[in-house]
Amino acid sequence: MRVAALWSVIALAVAGFILVGLYQQAGERGFDAQLDQHVKTLLASALPDTPNAVAGAAAAPDVLRLREPDALGEPRFSLPLSGWYWSLEQVAEARTDVLFASASLVGDPLVLPQIGATDELASGFAAGPGSEEVRYLRRRVALGDQSYILSAAIETAGFRADVWEFARNVALTLLVVGIGLVGAIFWQVSFGLKPLTRLQRSLSDVREGRREQVDEDMPRELAPLAVELNALIHSNREVVGRARTHVGNLAHALKTPISVLTNEARTSEGPLAQKVAEQTALMQTQVQHHLERARQAAQRRVIGVACEVEPLTERLARAMSKIYQSRGIDLSHDAPEGLRFLGEAQDLEEMVGNLLDNACKWARSEVAIEVRRQEAEGHGRRWLEVVIEDDGPGLSEEQMREAVKRGRRLDETVPGTGLGLSIVADLAALYGGAVRLERAQRGGLRAKLQLPAADERTLT
């Protein structure tokens, strides 16, 4: 749009220069035609009345005597320094002698550029007697054996003023036309791109989870694109659904054989049974981890999915309070309403649930969960942060680094597979987020889970 407007302005400017140039050329041609007419009148007025004189001049050039021309029908040739001048010069070998000149010159010579030796006509601009610019025309004529140069000149001040006035009018006219043209371009492009803007906003709503599909009520040129986008979104959801089903079936298929091996190893004695128990436990850990990774990758960033954070975290907090009621854990919850996670609700539930369960296992008496917004920088991505901390023994810096590694259990006396924090870290990374562990003010562990936030506007 800006390029089109720029080229339109350039084209109008070039057109303006061309128009002014053509006008000036037309004026110069008009000057030359007028000057040529005066030169011809000058020649006719200077010739003697007796035709025989000219005829006899061919045999005896000295007999021909040109007479002084009159005012040529133009009174300004008689007014002193009027800007209208003429002169008649006789060419004598390498010099020219002025025979007659207009009264307007007041005795001063009319100094003009020399005409070429082989040229019959010359015209152009030069400085006149009063230092004003004049347009001149010089013509060489031969009368018998003698050559003469007849010159006429007219001052150009009025002509220059006309050219500048014309240029000013052209500039004003083209300025108005340019403003109108640029405005029309901006209006046309803005009006023409409105459907694309609507499509972009509709697709953004789907990506942010505010609607299920793209609005198909578009102009006929864009309607097929909207239909194809909706088909792509639907296909994406079907692929995710099939992947989840496949992962679930695989989990059930592996769970039974591993459970049988584990039970058989527990009921048997001897080094072989112990070895089988160790390996089946490792198998269960590995299978669980890779199944979780496969499930996470299958549902990563499903288009148009978002969920409310506050109801989900509040439900998890109530559930953990009941599970750990016998230990007297005081679990506080603080989350703003309207904040939404840009992703699957079950993923958020798994991440927060793992962190909350881990905090309750290690806490002495207090666990706190807080959800807060993170301001986006400029037009960057929106984020939310879930902070869970406890008053347990906490971890050292080295233990914090080890805790997020797959299958790493820092205390074998506490039940679990050691996959909780690893799963949280992997799942958060799939959404572009992260989980960080640090020392809490209560003395225990603080886990900060950063995740993408959806637009908080109401679903349409």
Automatic annotation (TrEMBL):
Keywords: Kinase, Membrane, Phosphoprotein, Transferase, Transmembrane, Transmembrane helix, Two-component regulatory system
GO CC field: plasma membrane
SMART domains xref list: HATPase_c (SM00387)
Lyase as UniProt keyword: no
Recorded GO MF terms: protein histidine kinase activity
Keyword Membrane in annotation: yes
First and last residue of the signal peptide: none
Gene3D superfamilies hit by this protein: Histidine kinase-like ATPase, C-terminal domain (3.30.565.10)
Localization: Membrane
Domain Histidine kinase: 249-455
PROSITE patterns assigned: HAMP, HIS_KIN
Domain HAMP: 190-241
GO BP annotation list: phosphorelay signal transduction system
One Pfam match: HATPase_c
Residue intervals passing through the bilayer: 6-23, 170-189
Catalytic activity: ATP + protein L-histidine = ADP + protein N-phospho-L-histidine
PANTHER family noted in UniProt: SENSOR HISTIDINE KINASE TRCS (PTHR45436:SF5), SENSOR HISTIDINE KINASE YKOH (PTHR45436)
Protein name: histidine kinase
Organism encoding this protein: Roseibium limicola
